[in-house]
Amino acid sequence: MKLAVLLGLPATILSAVYAATDPHEYREHLHLKPLPGGSLYAGFSFNATTSLGSYDKQHYRYFPRSLAQILHYTHTAELHLRFSLGRWDEETWGSRPRSGLREGGNGVELWAWLESDAERKAEERWSDLVNSLSGLFCASLNFIDSGKTVRPLLSFDPEGSLREYQAMQERVTGRGQGELQLLHGMLPHEVVCTENLTPFLKLLPCKGKAGISSLLDGHKVFDSEWQTMSVDVRPACHASGTSWECQLEIQQTVDMVLNTERSQRPHDDPIPRPKPIEEIKCDASKSYNGEDTCYPVAFEGEQEWTLSKIFGRPLRASCLASGSDTHDVSLAVPSERTVEVISKSTVSHEGDNSTRSYYLPDDTDFDLHLPQQVLASNQQESETASVHASRQITGYGQERGGMHTTLHNPHPWPQDVIYLESLPWFLRPYVHTLSLSAGTIKKTYYTPLLDRQRGTQLELLIELPAESTVELTYDFEKAILRYSEYPPDANRGFDIPAAVIRVLPGNSTLGAPTRENYLRTTSLLLPLPTPDFTKVRQGLAGLKKLLAKSKAGVNAGDESNGKTMQESSSPVKEENGRPKEHKKSR
Amino acid sequence: MEALTRVYNDHPKTLLFTSAAVIRILLAIAWPALPDLLTSRVEISTAVNSFKRLQEGLFLYDHGLDPYDGGIFHQAPLFLPLFSLLPSPQESIGRLISVLLYTALDLFSAELLCQIADSGAATQSTSYTSPRRQRTWRSISVVAIYLFNPYTLLTCLGRPTTIFTTFFVLLSISHACQARMATSAFALAVASYISLHPAFLLPPIGVLCYDRVCLQRISSSSQNAKPTTSKANVTIDQHRFPSALQFAFSMLTTYASTTALLLALSRLLLPSWTFIPSVYLTPLQLPDLTPNTGLWWYFFTEMFEPFRNFFLGVFWLHMFSYSIPLSLRLRKQPLASVVLMWGICCVLEPYAHIGAVGGAGSLLCCVGHVFELSTAHRYTFPALAALLYCTLLGPAFHHLWIYAGSGNANFFYAITLVWNLGLFILLTDTLYAVLRDEWECERPEGKGKDVRQI
C-alpha cells in the first residue's frame, strides 16, 4: 500500500501542479436591481471550488477549511443552510430571485445528504453536523433534534452529482459509504442577526475586507425588508474521458431587499423627520394649498441612490489581486437610466438592453450613483410569480384550530406543486379532515407524529388548475406540555415552521417555465394552553390531600364499623357466640 | 296520557327503552352539530377514547398505513375493522348511523344492568342475606337512572369508544351474577383489552362469580331437600362447593387465553406489534396531558422529571390497591365490591371522563337497598350537590382557561378536584352503608344508633 503511494507520488504532484489553477476557483458577483416601490434588490454570491482530491487530503485554498472539516467528519455529501428574515412581497416585487432556490423559511433551515449505511448512523452524523454548524455559525442549530428533523421524499432533489461523487469516494477510500440520506430541519424561532453574518463572512477568502463582501455590514443587512443568507455545498462531476472528475463547490449567497430611502438616512441622524415646507413639492391644484398648507405631490420617476450610501460603506477594490475574468457587479436598470460610475480605475461597462456589468478595480474603491430621473418608458414590468401561497391558523382558543393554506396559480396553465409541511409534535393534525377546495392531490406522504420524539411530516403533490385558487385545510389539536417543556415566555406561543412549496417545471408547449422554483410560506405562531407555573406545589398538595382522604375514607368506612363493634363487643359476643367472625372483620 | 300510563304500567321497560332511543336519535337529528360538538368536549373525549381520533386511525388504516405508528390513535385495534364497515361519520347519514350504533349499545348496557339488578346478587350471597332486601331498587329504576342521566346521554352522542368498555364490564358482571364463569371472564378480558384498567375488576368479579356458583349449588341441593328457610344455608356441606383454587385457575386461564386471542387477532389485522405500546403504554405512561375530568393530567404536567416514573407507578398501584382488599373485606357482598371497585376505577383512571361516571353511578344503584344508611348518616346530599355544581361550573371554567384567557389551568383543575372529591364521598358513603348493613345484621341492637370513631 505504502509503495503504491510512494510510486504514485510524483504523478500526484505533477497532476496537482498541472491542475493547480483549475480546481481552486473563486468567483464573486453582486447583482443590483431596483424594485417597484422604492426598494433595491441586492444579491451577493460567492463561489469557490476545490477538487475532490484536495478535499480528501484536506488541502484547501478558497474553500473554507472550517466548514470542509465538518463536512468531511460528518460524511456530508451535499449541504444547504439558510438564514432568513422577513417576507418577499411577491405582489409588488414579482418573482423570487434565483427562483427561490437560495431561500429558506423564516429563521434557520438546514438540509443535507449524508452518507451512511444505517438509519441510526445517519441520525448520529446529522446530530454531529447540526452541533458543529451550530458552533460555526453561532446559531442554535443544535436544537434541531429528532423532533424537528424530517426526511422529505419529493420536495428536494440533490443539486450536485451525488452518484458520481459517491463512486469517486468509493474508489478513493476503497469502501462503500452506504446510502445517501436526506435530512431536513427547520428552526423558525431563531432570530438571524449580526452574530450569524460575521462567521458567514469569515468563510470567504477576503473575509469582508475587500471585494463585494466589503459592502456587507450587519446594520444594513438586518435592517432590510427581506433578507436571506445561504451556504450550499455540492459535488460537481464532469466526465473526462472514461473517468469522472469531481469538484466540491461552495456557493454562499446573501440576498436582500433594501428600502432605498431608509437605508440612505445618515448614520448620525437616523430618525425620519418631515422636510421643511420649502423643500416639499406641493400640489397647487388643491383648494387648500397655501403658504402654510401643502399637499405633497406623489413621487414620480426613479429614486436617487448611491451604492456606498445605501450600504453605509464604500465598495473596496477587487478581492483577488489578479482580478477575475467575469463581471463582479451587474446592475439591472433600463438603458435610458443614467448611471454614474465613480471609480479612479477603469471599469468596463457593458451596456446591453437592461443589464450593465462592471469589473471591480484592483486597487481603488468603486461606487455607483443613480440620480433622480423620470423615465419616458413605463416602469419595467415585474415578472409574475409562478404560485402565490399563504398560510394561516384558523379558529380561536387554545384547544384546537385549523390550518388554512391558499395556493394561487395566476398562470393560464396547470401547475404541479409539492407541498411540504413539517410540524412539531405538540400540534396534532387530523389528516382525515384534510381537504382541497379544487385541484387534485396526486400523491400523499405522511409520517405521523410521536409524542416528544418525532414531528409530523406531510408531503403532498398537488395539481393546481390554471388560473385558480386552491384552499388546503385540515384540523388540528393543541397538546398541553409538561411544565418543563415550555420556554420561559410560554404565553408568547410556539413557532410553526414555514411550509416549503416546490413548483415543478411545467409543460413547455403551454408556455410554462421549464425550471422548477421554490417558495415558502411565512412561519406561524401557535398559542398553546399553559399550566400555572407559580402554584405548582400548592396544586399538587391539594391532589395529594384528596387521594389521602379517599384512602382514609375507605379505611374509615371499614374501621368505624369495626371500632363500634369493639365497643359493644362483650355482650354481643356472648349472645351471638361467634367471636371468630368478629376478629376476622377487624 | 291515560294510554301512556297504561303502557307504562304494563310494559315499563319497553317504554323506557323506546323513549331513551327516541331522545338520543331526536337530539342527533334536531341538532346535527351536537354529536360533533360533544365529541370535541374534554369531559367526554380523551386521548384514549375520542371518536375523532378513531376517525384518524380509521383513515390511516384504510390507506394501508399503520395507525399505531403515531401519537394520535391509541384505541384497541379491533375497533378498526368494526368502524370501517360504517359509512364516514363526517356526512349526516354516517353520523346518524354512528349515533344509532351507540344508542343500541346503551340499550344493551341498560338491559344488562336490569339483569344485574334482577339477579338479587346485591342482597344475597352464600353467607349473607341483607335485612334490607325488601328495599332493593326496582330494576326499572336502575335502568332509568342509566338511560336518562345526562352523563350517559351526552356520552352516547359524543361516541367515545369507552362506552364499549362499560358495556363489556356490565356484561361480565351480569354473567358473573348468573354464575357463568367462562363468559364473564371473556367479557372482562374484552373490556380490559379495550381499556386496561378493567383488569383490576378481576378479583372482585372472580369472588362474585364464585359466590354465585356456590349459591347455585346450594339452591339446587336445597330444592332437592326442600328446606326453604335461610338457616339451611348454614347447614350446607361446604364440600359440595367447587374448589376455590381450581375456580380461580380456570377463570384466570379463560381470561388470559381470551386476552391472548384478542391480541393475536389484532396482530393479524395490523402490520406490526406497535399497537401494544401505543394502546397500553399510553394509559401507563400518560404521554398525552390533554385536560380531562381525572386527577392525573395536572399532576403529571407539573411533575418534576426525575419523579415522573415513580409517581406513575404510585398512581397505578394506588388504583390497584383497592382491588383485592375490597373483594376480601366485602366477600359477603361480592356485588358491592365489584360496584365500588368499578367506581374507584372510574375516578382514578388516567384518562377519566364523565361517561364512565354515568355507568358507574347507575351500577351503584344496584346496591340501592343500603342508600338509606348513607343518606341518614353520611354526606350524600353535599356530595350530590358538589357533583351538580361541578357539572355546571366545569365547562365554564374550562372556557375561562382555554378560550377567554381570563382564568388559568388551576380553575379547571380545582373543579375536577371537587368533582372527584364528590365522587369519592359517594363511594366511601356507599362502602360505609354496605358495611353497616352487614354489621347491623350481626348486631341488631345497634340499628339506628350513631357510630362514632373512637
From TrEMBL, chain A:
Residues 1-19 form the signal peptide. It comes from the Eukaryota. Keywords: Signal. GO terms for cellular component: GPI-anchor transamidase complex. This is GPI transamidase component PIG-T. Residues 562-571 have a biased composition (Polar residues). GO terms for biological process: attachment of GPI anchor to protein. Residues 551-586 are annotated as: Disordered. Pfam families: Gpi16.
TrEMBL record, chain B:
Belongs to the PIGU family. The lineage of its organism: Eukaryota, Fungi, Dikarya, Ascomycota, Pezizomycotina. Pathway: Glycolipid biosynthesis; glycosylphosphatidylinositol-anchor biosynthesis. GO terms for cellular component: GPI-anchor transamidase complex. Its main location: endoplasmic reticulum. GO terms for biological process: attachment of GPI anchor to protein; GPI anchor biosynthetic process. It is found in: Endoplasmic reticulum membrane. It is a multi-pass membrane protein. This is GPI transamidase subunit PIG-U. The chain crosses the membrane at residues 15-34, 140-173, 185-210, 247-270, 310-330, 383-404, 411-435. It comes from Neohortaea acidophila. Keywords: Endoplasmic reticulum, GPI-anchor biosynthesis, Membrane, Transmembrane, Transmembrane helix.
